[in-house]
Amino acid sequence: xxxxxxxxxxxxxxxxxxxxxxxxxxxxxxxxxxxxxxxxxxxxxxxxxxxxxxxxxxxxxxxxxxxxxxxxxxxxxxxxxxxxxxxxxxxx
Length: 92
Known about the structure:
Radius of gyration: 23 Å
Helix content: 10-25%
Strand order of the largest sheet: 1-2
Low-confidence stretches: none
Shape: rod-shaped
Largest sheet: 2 strands, antiparallel
Distance between the termini: 61 Å
Strand content: 5-15%
Structural class: alpha+beta
């Protein structure tokens, strides 16, 4: 973990302010390619979130600009009673 004492004031000004006052953590490998990654010195940090590993803990990061999300793919529910009536009328 990187503390605020290890960064120079110019680098600290570039880091986003956090409500909790916690120090910024380095990015994880899943963050590579994101537009929110900022290089400060030898480390890479996320401009949008101070703990990137927590964002990837339960799936993909919702702030990731490089993450491709699938839309759709949902199966529409069909009422079986209405479907059988349509089939009897020949509209199916």
